[in-house]
Amino acid sequence: MDAYILIITLLSIVIVILGVSWFKWHAFISLTIASLFLAIFTGMSWDKIVKAYETGVGGVLGHLVGILALGTILGKMLSESGAGLQIANYFVKIFGEKKLPWAMFASGFIIGIPVFFEVGILILLPLVISIQQATKKNLLLISLPAIAGLSIVHGLVPPHPGAVAAIGIYDANLGRVLLYSLFIAIPAGIIGGPLYAKFISTRVTPSGESGLIHVDESQSKKLPGVGISFLSILMPVILMVLGTFAPFIELPENGVKFLEFIGSPLIALLISCFAAFYFLGFRQGIGRNQIKKFVDECILPVGSIILIIGAGGGFKQVLIDSGVGETIGKMAENLSLSPLVLAFLIAGLIRIATGSATVALTTAAGIVSPIIANMTGVNLELLVIVTGAGSLMFSHVNDAGFWMVKEYLGLSIKETFKTWTVLETILSFVAFIGALVLDIFI
Asked: Helix 139-156 crosses helix 174-190 at what angle (to 10 degrees)?
């Protein structure tokens, strides 16, 4: 039975890939057909199939719809006003063209600490495209280091939800997890980011272009100042950092709740959009009608992205509800391995099967936790980190991140596998090896 479930899972993934590349279906159609195929052939009852799919779509989009729309509007304002170009020119001047991948990795890593991966991509994308337009370099050389910085932090470093959940399940020390994870995440991010980007950018060039943001180079109008340009791109990050640290500030309870409210991604981006309308719009001589036109132009392509990400969420939920993750967890549980290796493998297999890093991390922690309950000498903090590392590996068609990167960078499915999937797997294995090395010394 276990082998049968795994075969059906593999076939459903093949349906997605063939649907998009061979039959030329829209990715939304391919993912929906694959979800139905998987649900029917794994024996889910008829009354639960549509509900599981709808729950998955709602689970992903409930958190993402507003963020995607507002992040894209902010990106459009940065590009149309020339603020993105202004920051790009500043980066080129300060770091020089050769060090740009390193600067983008540092930006992704720092911005990734307080914000979710998806939000980080939306904040950094206009900047990445502006720099690419200014330097004419391969987009992958600039974008992949930023994405690597965002991703490694999202997978390993608290306060991201997966890491925090695993800390609770394993009863690990949050401070030590934070310290060890930063120590491991930086070298893993460098290898998966700037170094891998340098290697792959000579072999792959995106076949399309981002359907969401186009930077107008012929900026005859006066560009906004460097300071206001940086403030516009960093405002959502500053607000989210405020929200994250609000509980540690000595304020009345209502004050803390207010900071947490304006620091939530949706509200932080909404405030930042209105600030951009004023500073990058009205103050630059762009009228209300023009701003409305910009918003309409950038909202239309978001519809396609939302459909794809939603269908990816539906596919993921069917994978979870059909018991694929549970089956893989039980199979891995029977292997007699060191707890660190076991946690990494279980998280990795569940990630490959379900597409969700957070589901992989929390499920794997739930499976491994009772196994280590009576063991001595297990470093719980490193256990959190290896589980997080496993949850990053081999992102493919059942992961919303796969489709976001594909659409935003204008890649084909094959190019996304060669770049994003390989990058995630490098991050995963380098972080795992880093944790094993650290385990020898502590």
From this structure: 160
413: Cα within 13 Å, side-chain hemisphere: 18
Cα(424)–Cα(432) distance, integer angstroms: 12
* DSSP for residue 93: H
What confidence tens digit (pLDDT) does each residue in 239-278 have?
888 887 888 888 888 899 999 999 888 899 899 999 999 9
Q: Pseudo-torsion of CA 190, 192, 194, 198, nearest 10°?
A: 140
Q: Whole-prediction pTM value?
A: 0.76
Please name the residue that has the structure tokens 């600030």.
Answer: 275
pLDDT tens per residue across span 43-69: 999 999 999 999 988 987 887 788 888
Nearest to 124 by CA among 397, 410, 405, 424: 405
417: its two tokens: 């596998």
In the chain, count of helices (H) and strands (E)? 21, 0
Judge contact between 124 and 404, C-beta under 8 A.
no
> Is the link from the previous residue into 159 a cis peptide, with omega within 30 of 0?
yes
